[in-house]
Amino acid sequence: MTTKNILVVDDEAGIRELLSEILFDEGYGVLLAENAEQARQQIKHQPDIVLLDIWMPDTDGLTLLKEWVAEGSLIAPVVMMSGHGTIETALEATKIGAADFLEKPIALKKLLATIEQTLQQYQAPQSSPEAAADNPEKKSGCVTVELPLNLPFREARMQFDKLYLNYHLETAEGNLSDLADKLGIERTHLYRKLKQLGLKPPKKAATQ
């Protein structure tokens, strides 16, 4: 089983150390950042999930989340953390793109359950192009998939987007522009969306 890596972004050293110890003990790999600038560097290591504090001195977590979403550099689900959280703040975070919201002090059971649930919800199904070619359903364009309907709208939408784009990537012929034309969206928008969801563009895209 591949070790899941978690990026912890918090300006308080004590919280970073505590979360790091807990997550290491649970078998996770941990990346640490004490501010937005360090977080921008650590996100390049492609963590599987991000624990992001809202209140930080240089750039707050919500602003950083907006930045990642706008740039298309967000390739992992983000769970926001705050010791001064309100319903309005939590709603704003989920509207921007956060997967969940944890209020400090965070109970150990709640922390681990949220991480496990978020990783399960955002894990894209993996299958090879060869398997897709041998599958009559894939050839016909009609595929039966399972999607839990008891999720928040944004999470359900992200899961659907992953399933939809993963299917078209597996059956893609040609480069990224060809796929964008087939799906009826702008090439740049498709590229950002693939990066956001952690999916790789068609192999021929690199030759453009």
Concise summary:
The chain has 208 residues and is an alpha/beta fold. Helices cover 50% and strands 12% of the residues.
Tell me about this structure:
- The protein is globular.
- It has 208 residues and is an alpha/beta fold.
- Helices cover 50% and strands 12% of the residues.
- It has two domains: 5-121, Rossmann fold (3-Layer(aba) Sandwich), CATH 3.40.50; 129-207, Arc Repressor Mutant, subunit A, CATH 1.10.10.
User: What is the succession of H and E elements?
Assistant: EHEHEHEHEHHHHHH
**What composes the largest sheet?**
5 strands, parallel
Structural class: alpha/beta
Would you tell me the overall average pLDDT?
81
End-to-end Cα distance: 36 Å
- The helix tally amounts to 10
| Overall 3D form | globular
Helix content: 40-55%
Tag the structure with descriptive keywords.
208 residues, alpha/beta, Rossmann fold, Arc Repressor Mutant, subunit A, 2 domains, 5-stranded parallel β-sheet, 50% helix, globular
